[in-house]
Amino acid sequence: MNELKEEEGELRLHPLTPNDKREDVNSYKLYFDEALKNEKIKNIALSGNYGSGKSSILLTYFNGSEYENKKMQISLANFNSGSTNPKDNLLNIEKNIINQILYQIPVSKIPLTNFKIKREISSLQKIFILVEIILILSLVFKKSEVMVFVSSLYEKYISHIGISPIIYSILLLLMIWNVWMLLKYVPIKKINLKFQNVEAEINKKNDELFEKYADEIVYLLEKSGKEILVIEDLDRFKQLKIFEKLRELNVKVNDKLNSSNKNKFTFIYAIKDDLFNDKKERTKFFDLIIPVIPYLNATNSYEKLKSMFAKNYTIDDNLVYLLSFYIDDMRLLLNIYNEFVVYRDELGDEDFNEDDKLLSLIVYKNLFYKDYEDLKFRKGELYNIVTSVEKYRDEIRNQILKAKKELVDAEEQREFKAAKTHEDVLTLWLKNNMYQDYSFGDINSFINNPQRNFYYLNNGQPINTTYEELQKDTDYQHELALALKEETITEKVIKDNISVLEKKLRSKLKDIISEDAIPEDKSLVYRLITQGYIDESYEKYINYSYAEKNDDTFLKNLFSNGKAIDFDVELNDFNKIIKVLTDVDYKKEVILNNSLLNYFIEKKDTRHIDEILNTSIKHSIGFIEQYYNKYSNILEHLVRLNIKIDLTKINIVDEKLIENYLFIEDETNFEFLILNNWKDKISNEEQISETINDKSLSKPFKVYYIPKLRRKVDLKNIDSDYYDSLLKNNKIIPSSENIDLYFKFSSDIINQILVEFINQNDLNMNFQMDKEFFDKLINTNEISNNKYKVFFEEYQFEGYSRELLDDNIKKEKLEILINLDKLVLSYDMVKFLDAKNIAYINNNEKKLSELLIENKDLDIKNWKTILDSNILNDVEKKKLFIARIDEFNFEEFKKLIIQLHFNEKLLKVINKQHGYHSIRFENTESNLVIKEYLANNNIIRENILNKMFEEK
Questions:
Q1: How many angstroms separate the CA atoms of 256 and 250, rounded?
Q2: Residue 289 and residue 270: Cα distance in Å, rounded?
Q3: Running DSSP on this structure, what letter comes out for residue 865?
Q4: Contacts of 493 (CB under 8 A, 6+ apart)
Q5: 350-353 own/partner pairs: CB under 8 Å, 24+ apart
Q6: Residue 661 burial class via C-beta count within 10 angstroms: exposed 0-12, middle 13-18, buried 19 and up
Q7: What residues form DSSP beta bridges with 273?
Q8: What's the CA gap between 2 and 334, in Å, rounded?
Q9: How far is CA 73 from CA 59, 213, 228, 268, in A?
Q10: Dihedral over Cα of 299, 302, 307, 308: its sign
Q11: Distance between CA atoms of 73 and 18, rounded to whole angstroms?
């Protein structure tokens, strides 16, 4: 990219053209020098991202080099094929390349080309044509007086020279030359390719031009007198085949040049890094790839930005640092600077000190141009963000009004006004944090017996405490102090809330817009806003003018099917406006205007009132609610049309709205009702059951009502339609009885809702559950290990066999079942536990011993430890030892012969003590097994063993 200073002086604006004096190209010069002199390198790629400086490198390299006059350059930056068909697109690219090559070669160097090229007629040609015309005219008009006079002179002075045949010979030659030139420019079928003042006519059908005219193109390049063809912007078409064709063309050109002992012809391509997805494709087209290190990148963007603006402007360093993460292209940076300078100059205020905000908008304009342009028409994302702030403030105002109304109600009720004793305070504390109903006698006993336990709710969870412990609780101490000062906890909370809301109302845009859930592609916009670089004052920087009168603006917006911008725009000439409105206009969003609706209400024009109100319902943009807050004349029409509105947006709610159910059935409205009208219905279990079971209340209401409950209930008293909602919101008492009820309700399935409920609660196992529940539970890996153990500790049925266990049951669950002795050990079970690497031998030695004796192929890890167990007696151990004797080495064998108290004679034989040859044994089953072991392991010779065990 060009620097700010040029030879003729310092420029105010940076040119965006490539820089032919780039300073950091010495390495690239070396690379190109070596490559261009290397006979093997004929296709070179200069690879780098957009804006990395590829053109500047090439321009700087060739500027003043030995190759400056030996190169042709092709640029497709401004070429648009106008076709979406890849084949047509490829054809058009080829045509454009040929045309640009033709344009750069003098016509005199390519006289034999078959491409028809328009060229200027030389002076010599003009003379030949003039002579030919004169000679032809002399033949045609030879009877004329002039020609008779010329003939007489000819006969008198030069006829004896015999020049007449010469003249006719010259005329014949000139006519032949003209015919040749005429035929040369008469194509049979042609395509006109035009590039500035050159026109080439190429004979073609729908063939690929590089193949059809390969010889012609080779001829052009050979005769061009050049050695290098630089091709830029070819990559933007994503046509990899063109690179293949150009490589083939390069081969043909160089073959031709080589046969004529001429220098090689090198193609140089400036391409983007991401052109080739396949790494093999990237290397197969080129003999050398030279990567370009970007002039501007993420590591140096900060320094470039800072140095560019620091000289003439004061830009916050934090803003420069933020922008550097998003501006990594030099052309983009230069254009941002240029636009900033122009806008800054146009403001023309020397005292202007908000360069940060102006620069932020210029960056926004360059990165999100369409959305920036939408600002003119009061739309787009930035406009929506800014205008949403006023909506936010309206919401805060409504919340303040609502909170003040709640405060008035709280002060009137003054629940804690009579709280003059500690008993009163504890009663109200337990009421507000109710886990179960306590009588006043209970509360007195809690105070009189400070160590007595009771429960209260904290964040929906039951807390076991005593009055002695509760008095140490800082929250309780605070509420006690407030109560004795005759200020309720509720009143204090409301006042604090009002204070917070009023602070929010004074907040600036940057404090209101949250950085949560920022769209990834618009993260910069949100950060510029949240850091105060873009705010509501953006209009004074872009200097738009909105001088139209309100009536005209309203109608213009209406006729163009725009959006309702400002409900409060005051209209003046209602008669004029109404005359031009059609029935269709009343269905458009723009018709929603406070002054227009108020006019119709005053005129009692119910037809148009109904049309506007119905349009408001259709678009759901808060028009009715804001009108209700400003005028008192709409309520009867809402009742008449049964129009439901958002109570949370109403400053003062009229009881008629609630009595007539004129509220939108959504969460916010239901919450409003619950907090303001249903306080008693969220803390008393009997009233909770009645409310949920009330058929006159809608299901959506109950779904929003349940999460607001301040105590838990038993399912047995509740309509089963709401079991899911109660469990999801953890509003049932966590007892085994309730879990059993829900399990049966859910068709004997342990679903995710039940799993989460079980995992997050301390369970009261007050009920013996059916075996069907445990059959489902046993393979439920999602249940926490602790809760899994709690359930199976209560399991009173027979143990589980391998067939009832899923293959994917977790190891931790199996360990719990083994430790609780809930599994039936069998051949398959043992194999399964071994595969899961479960330790199961302890306390199961007898059963495992039986399995090992019965199943010689059963392989149990560490089974030999069973022989060390105190659970088996020596007889049982001997049986196991004999059954698995082949699995012991000789040292283990000797040790167990002693440990299991076998016959002393056997020990003498094993140790080969003196006279052991004469020892004799009975042929019992165990002795014969031992004999076979000794023989197989070559401990005692077989002939000796046979004598020892021969029958008497």
A1: 10
A2: 10
A3: G
A4: none
A5: 353/314
A6: exposed
A7: none
A8: 9
A9: 10, 20, 8, 9
A10: positive
A11: 14
pLDDT, tens digit (0-9, with 9 covering 90-100), for 884-909:
888 888 888 888 888 888 878 888 88
State the pairing for strand pair 228-232/71-75: parallel
Q: Which residues contact 15 (CB under 8 A, 6 or more apart)?
A: 2, 6, 334
Question: What is the spatial distance between Cα 434 and Cα 683, in angstroms, rounded to a whole number?
Answer: 7
Give the rounded distance of the alpha carbon of 884 from its chain centre.
Answer: 62
Provide the residue count of the chain.
952
Q: For strands 288-291 and 191-195, give the pairing.
A: unpaired
Q: Are strands 266-271 and 228-232 parallel, antiparallel or unpaired?
A: parallel
Whole-number Å distance between alpha carbons of 438 and 451: 17
CA-based R_g, the chain, Å:
49
- CA pair distance 62, 32, nearest whole angstrom: 10
Rounded to 5°, the CA angle 762-766-772 comes to: 95
DSSP SS3 for 192: strand
101's tokens: 């090559």
Q: What is the DSSP string of 706-766?
A: GGG-SS-B-GGGS-GGGHHHHHHTT-B--BHHHHHHHHHHTTS---HHHHHHHHTS--B--
Per DSSP, 454 falls in state: E
Q: Which amino acid is at 271?
A: I
Q: What is the pLDDT of residues 197-217, one digit of tens each?
A: 444 444 444 456 777 777 788
Q: Is residue 45 a contact partner of residue 5, using CB atoms and an 8 Å limit?
A: no
Cα–Cα dist 878/867, whole Å: 9
Tokens 């012609």 sit on residue? 216
**Mean pLDDT estimate for the chain:** 77
Buried b / exposed e along 354-372 (16+ C-beta atoms within 10 A): ebbbbbbbbbbbbbbeebb
Helix axes 54-62 and 26-37, enclosed angle (nearest 10): 70
Q: Rounded to whole angstroms, how far apart are CA atoms 745 and 68?
A: 87
Handedness of CA 897, 898, 904, 905 (dihedral sign): positive
Q: Which two tokens stand for residue 891?
A: 């040292």
CA distance 226 to 222: 8
Q: Which residues contact 456 (CB under 8 A, 6 or more apart)?
A: 429, 430, 433, 434, 435, 462, 463, 465
Enter the tokens of residue 469: 């412990």
Distance from the first to the final alpha carbon of the chain: 113
Contacts of 531 by beta carbon, 8 Å cutoff, 6+ apart:
318, 319, 322, 510
- Does pTM surpass 0.90? no
Both structure tokens of 832: 């399964």
- At residue 20, the pLDDT reads 62
Distance, in Å, from the CA atom of 551 to the CA atom of 669, rounded to the nearest integer, reads: 36
What are 112's two structure tokens?
Answer: 């034999």
Whole-angstrom Cα distance, residue 897 to residue 109? 111
Q: Which amino acid is at 223?
A: K
User: Which H or E element spans position 45?
Assistant: strand 43-47
d(Cα 947, Cα 931) in Å, to the nearest integer? 11
φ/ψ of 940, rounded to 5, equals: -125, 140
Report the alpha-carbon distance of residue 886 to residue 223 in Å, rounded. 94
Instruction: State pLDDT tens for residues 835-870.
Output: 888 887 877 888 888 888 888 888 888 888 888 888
d(CA 436, CA 453): 13
Please give the structure tokens belonging to residue 262.
């001429």
Exposure string (b/e) for 426-438, b if CB count within 10 Å is 16 or more? Answer: bbbbbbbbbbeeb
The amino acid sitting at 349 is D
- Phi–psi pair at 194, nearest 5 degrees: -115, 135
